[in-house]
Amino acid sequence: MxxxxxxxxxxxxxxxxxxxxGLLVVWIAPGMEEATKWLGWAHGIxxxxxxxxxxxxxxxxEAPYTLLAATLTPVGPLGSVIAIELIERRGWGVAxx
Length: 97
Description:
The protein has helices at 4-28, 33-59, 65-71, 77-90. 75% of the residues lie in helices and 0% in strands. By secondary structure, it is mostly helical. It is elongated. The model has no long low-confidence stretch (mean pLDDT 89). It contains four helices and no strands. The protein has one domain (4-90).
């Protein structure tokens, strides 16, 4: 069942999605190489931290494995945000009570 660590993972997922969106914006814009570099580093480190936080929440039985699977898809942080919403709204990956 989702526990207190699940709320922190949710917050971290939204933060990482914002960094990823910012990276996409500066990557598409011409002449933003320096911002692209820094946001690229922030996204890379943030994504690894997000995966580690989700894995830790799984080990503590506070998040389902489906959340990690969705995070490791090519869409990355967008997959984790979508999975969190599905877990909260429909109970996907959560054992029935």
